[in-house]
Write a structure and sequence with these properties.
Order of helices and strands of chain B: EHEHHEHEHHHHHEEEEHEHHHHEE
Oligomer: heterodimer
Largest sheet of chain B: 9 strands, mixed
Radius of gyration of chain A: 16 Å
CATH architecture of the largest domain in chain A: Beta Barrel
Distance between the termini of chain B: 32 Å
Strand order of the largest sheet of chain B: 3-2-4-7-1-8-11-10-9
């Protein structure tokens, strides 16, 4: 059984290890991803980690032309080179925000709400500086 | 069973003030606040001695980030000559000054103070658009929303897409909101964009002529808005004219206990409804076409006032993006869910329509210095209810109930306040 604290920091450590994780309430069984330390259904405070399959559907999205400076620096996007971010409804019944890769953000009309997606881990940096961005791409 | 809430005693507005909104390289937060404060003092019909103001609440989202100035409370106290009396800064992203107002109301309602001021200020023009976008994105849920590249326009663009998918609206419908807001702003002397979309289109044509550039051939304002060169994409499907600008500005409101209101004016405005709600990040929301925080704010404000959405005669709503205006009108009950965009198309929300929305020009055209917006919306409600809105006065002789709706972040903090002229 995974002993890491139920936290955003742990969630991102798992992403570095290519695991998409959620938390499950020990009392009522409700699943959350992103993970929650407190169950917002029954207010139980004991949770287990659960690994998710990383499959889902696109719920909504946007193609961003004016991004924050760090996105421009890290990924080279600018007003002429947009990127896609969206919300994914996972098979397990929870939703999560993610980058949407493998689509053409300059042709948003080709990206469809409802399209099936699978997880992709975008790694940047190495060792101590490793940072993994959660992304999904078309199946 | 939730008990019926009530204020310990009534609270009245006896003065308001607002600086010009815009991008001012030669003015800082202090200058803007002094401008709004001076107007507020002058607006009190029978006068007020500033020494009688017992406490101040000031909304400010992020001067820390924009101009490297935190801890605005005592700075404001000093500038206004208010030391050593208390000034408290409130932070609720773009709803910061409505939170200031709410606490100020409670301070009178509790019986602790009799005369207090609420206000707000923000100074955003000293950074680039990208940096300002990053500044606003501080109010996102960083570990999950921000980290995957969402921006404010990005979140609202995602809501627009979900709304389009669900109700069959298109970007053409969002243009109706923009065109209406600009039409109202023509008559607001303090607005950042005091021009209709048509005026702006024509001035671009004139500019091209003057510079000897190719002359654009837009047939009408819609064609102008569709042109991605004239109206660039920010976050699909939202273009520049769907988004409020970066602004500098300040606003203030003077509140007193109801029983002494007539000492200051024969025409006070009474605070009869006040509500606030909290919402969750994009992915956790149950709906992408509504804000749960809006609904809680509305429930609280309607509950306190004993009114329903049908009693509200006009409202300022937080149109940080064109789609937001539509969603708010539905959440507050002015129109049914999925029908807000039709109401705008039919002209129901125009200045001369049955339910005028954002007579000031809204955030889109009046400007959106985030911390100042909430109390600036109340300034508009005050002017409308007192018949002092000049050329943009709602043509209804029986104007009695107006409201202001303010949203912070991407729906994390929502407020709704109802005002009455008796």
């Amino acid at each position: 059984m995974e002993e890491r604290p139920i936290s955003a920091i742990s969630f991102h450590q798992f992403l570095n290890e290519e695991k998409l994780m959620g938390s499950k309430c020990k009392k009522c069984g409700t699943l959350f991803s992103p993970p929650r330390p407190i169950c917002i259904k029954c207010f139980g405070r004991e949770m287990d980690w659960v690994e998710l399959k990383g499959k889902g559907k696109l719920v909504t999205f946007t193609c961003i032309h004016v991004g924050p400076p760090w996105m421009i620096k890290e990924f080279g996007y600018d007003r002429k080179h947009p990127y896609c971010s969206g919300v994914v409804d996972l098979e397990e019944g929870v939703k999560i925000d993610a980058r949407i890769e493998g689509v053409d953000p300059s042709k948003p009309e080709t990206i469809k709400i409802g399209m099936p997606l699978k997880v992709k881990f975008l790694h940047r940096g190495e060792g101590e500086n490793l940072q993994t961005y959660l992304a999904f791409e078309p199946v | 069973m939730q008990k019926k809430r009530k204020l310990g005693r009534g609270v009245a507005v006896v003065g308001t003030g607002m600086s010009r909104f815009g991008m001012f390289k030669d003015k800082d937060s202090r200058d803007l606040l002094v401008e709004a404060y001076s107007e507020m003092l002058s607006s009190v019909d029978k006068g007020v001695d500033p020494r009688d103001i017992e406490a101040i609440w000031l909304g400010n989202f992020s001067n820390d980030f924009y101009v490297h100035q935190g801890h605005m409370g005592p700075i404001v106290a000093d500038v206004l000559g208010h030391t050593p009396k208390p000034v408290t800064r409130t932070e609720g992203a773009c709803a910061a000054s409505t939170l200031a107002f709410r606490d100020a109301v409670f301070s009178i309602a509790s019986g602790y103070y009799d005369i207090v001021m609420a206000g707000g200020v923000e100074e955003m023009s000293k950074v680039t658009t990208e940096e300002a976008t990053e500044g606003l994105a501080l109010a996102l849920d960083r570990p999950y929303e921000g980290i995957v590249g969402f921006t404010f326009p990005g979140v609202f663009a995602s809501l627009a897409n979900a709304y389009f998918e669900r109700y069959g609206a298109t970007h053409e419908h969002l243009m109706n909101v923009t065109i209406k807001s600009h039409n109202n702003a023509r008559f607001n002397p303090k607005a950042q964009f005091k021009a209709s979309v048509h005026d702006i289109m024509n001035s671009r044509i004139e500019r091209a002529k003057k510079r000897g550039q190719p002359i654009p051939t837009w047939k009408d304002e819609r064609e102008f808005l569709r042109d991605l060169n004239a109206n660039p994409m920010v976050a699909w499907p939202l273009q520049v004219f769907d988004c409020c600008p970066m602004s500098d500005g300040a606003s203030c409101i003077l509140l007193v206990a109801e029983e002494i209101a007539k000492n200051f004016t024969d025409n006070p405005i009474y605070v009869i409804g006040i509500g606030q709600g909290s919402g969750r990040p994009l992915h956790t929301g149950a709906s992408f076409t509504s804000f749960e925080a809006n609904k809680n704010a509305a429930k609280e404000a309607y509950g306190l006032s004993g009114l329903t959405s049908k009693d509200i005669q006009f409202s300022e709503v937080h149109d940080c993006f064109s789609i937001a205006e539509i969603i708010h009108m539905e959440d507050l009950g002015f129109f049914k869910e999925g029908e807000g965009y039709k109401a705008v198309e039919e002209g129901l929300t125009r200045l001369d329509g049955p339910m005028p929305i954002n007579t000031s020009g809204g955030l889109k055209c009046k400007g959106h210095p985030v911390g100042a917006t909430g109390t600036a919306q109340m300034h508009e409600v005050w002017e409308q209810l007192r018949g002092e809105a000049g050329e943009r006065q709602i043509p209804n002789k029986n104007l009695r109930i107006g409201a202001s709706h303010n949203l912070g972040g991407t729906g994390g903090t929502c407020t709704f306040c109802i005002f009455e002229r008796r």
